[in-house]
Design goal:
The protein has about 500 residues and is an alpha/beta fold. One of its GO terms (cellular component) is cytosol.
């Protein structure tokens, strides 16, 4: 082991307990609870009686606004730099004019459509724009809604699938107690939640080295008369790859011709819904396929809006069962609502419309193409480094992933590399693939607007420095478990 690494293994203590080196970046919850129960206050802002405040319960009195600001501001300086967070798909940068609009509209409640009629009108325009972008046959009439993110949008899409299936079965006098839904084992966790929360059997088409994505053969083997729908992903979380949506739709078309089973599809386009229309305009994945009944997207991902916005659009109005829409008399108006949340921010909807006005189709193309160019550059350079093997290169959405070659080293893993990159401030996730491929660990980089080519060169320099350091080790890097790196996606 290198001398530098030996020095790094010196343990610290906290509250009389030893903290191992790989635990020092973030204290476990039980150690957080051992922090002093009082917070000290910077004397610059303190007034009489404000030398300390309780950490875990409300103080009897208040404090100066500057004091409260200082306490919160000081603590969040320990967070990572959002611009260097290559794990998240969520937007971490908007231009100053958008931030000014955000600051002027963060008090708007999206549910108060009678109080904020123009904000409601702008939401409606955004729905029409997306419906048109995704080739709805009736973009001016179909149903759609903004949500707090793609997770809520997925829940709404799944509920509509379940209710449509129930209605059709009841008309035929058939039981409705055993619904199932089909998706790949690489699906985002929200679909597991949907199946659990709404009592639908999840049927996973397992990804394997031979079939790393959802495939038509696997879908046909999983569906039956109780299948409420098939969910396909336009931009997998693990690798960024598109699932073969048109091929799956064709297989289901052929199944209907043979058996009469009419199984709809929902496309989870959380990331790809704002990429494919601009970078791959000839790709057929959306409402051009009649079997695709609903699509969700994250406005706060490649829609280029700050966190807190998703969208779901149905192909035609009839694809959203009317009984799921509530007519609510609220704040002086009568409005239809279909959502899991009630009150929620309206500012992000305005930011989405701002982007539509600001960029247009050409602007969205330029922004997404710049991100893709960075992804293609970095993936090629990483492939050429030697110890790595690409699983994707950023040709679909600007996301790429790689694994460590089996013969590369026995002294360090991608989890070690992930931790080493944090030394430079970069947050690059390492994690195992889904079940049946969980022995394969990968790293992934999400290139977003704001991650410039200049930053990409700096990232590459730091990556090479991290690998060079790890290569000096003459024994495996010590740590407790490969699951202690704290990454969630």
């Amino acid at each position: 082991m290198s001398k530098d690494r030996k020095a790094d293994t010196q343990s610290d203590t906290y509250g009389g307990k030893e903290i191992k080196p790989d635990q020092q970046q973030r204290l476990p919850h039980h150690m957080e609870m051992e922090l002093p129960h009082e917070l000290s206050i910077n004397p610059l802002f303190a007034r009489e009686g404000e030398s300390t405040i309780p950490r875990l319960h409300l103080a009897d009195g208040g404090m100066l606004p500057e004091t409260a600001y200082q306490i919160v501001h000081d603590e969040i300086t320990l967070d990572g730099n959002a611009r260097l967070n290559l794990a998240t798909f969520v937007s971490t940068w908007m231009e100053p004019a958008a931030e000014r609009l955000y600051a002027q509209s963060f008090d708007k409640n999206m549910i108060d459509k009678d109080e904020y009629p123009q904000t409601a009108q702008i939401e409606e325009r955004c729905v029409r724009i997306l419906a048109d972008l995704w080739h709805s046959p009736e973009p001016l009439k179909t149903m759609g809604v903004s949500t707090t993110g793609s997770s809520e949008a997925c829940m709404l899409g799944g509920l509509a699938l379940k209710r449509r299936w129930q209605n059709a079965r009841e008309k035929e006098g058939k039981p409705v107690d055993l619904p199932n839904i089909v998706f790949s084992s690489a699906v985002q966790v929200v679909w597991e939640k949907f199946a659990n929360y709404w009592e639908v059997e999840p049927r996973y088409v397992k990804v394997t080295p031979e079939h790393p994505q959802l495939n038509p053969e696997g879908v046909l083997a999983a569906v039956d008369e109780n299948t409420i729908g098939v969910v396909a992903i336009l931009g997998e979380t693990y690798t960024g790859l598109y699932e073969p949506i048109a091929a799956i739709a064709k297989a289901l078309d052929e199944l209907q011709e043979k058996s009469g089973l009419n199984i709809p599809m929902h496309v989870d386009a959380a990331s790809g819904g704002f990429i494919a229309p601009f970078l791959q305009p000839d790709l057929v994945w959306d409402f051009q396929l009649p079997r695709v009944k609903s699509i969700n997207v994250s406005g706060h991902k490649y829609g280029l809006v700050y966190p807190g916005l998703g969208w779901i659009i149905w192909r035609e109005a009839k694809d959203l069962p009317e009984e799921l829409i509530f007519r609510v008399s609220y704040l002086g108006g009568n409005m239809p609502t279909f959502a899991l949340n009630f009150s929620r921010p309206g500012a992000q909807v305005l930011l989405q419309y701002y982007n539509y006005l600001r960029l247009g189709k050409e602007g969205y193309y330029e922004v997404q193409k710049a991100s893709q160019n960075v992804a293609l550059f970095l993936s090629k350079e990483i492939q050429n480094m030697g110890p790595f093997e690409l699983l994707s290169d950023g040709s679909d959405i600007p996301v790429f992933a790689w694994r460590l070659r089996d013969d590369a080293t026995s002294h360090w893993t991608l989890f070690d590399l992930s931790r080493q990159m944090r030394v430079f401030g970069w947050q690059v996730p390492a994690y195992p693939l889904p079940p049946d491929m969980e022995t394969v660990t990968i790293m992934r980089v999400v290139v977003r607007n704001g991650f410039s080519m200049d930053l990409a060169h700096l990232f590459l320099v730091n990556l090479k420095q991290a690998v060079a350091f790890l290569d000096t080790l003459d024994a495996p890097m010590p740590h407790d478990t490969k699951y202690d790196n704290g990454f969630h996606h």
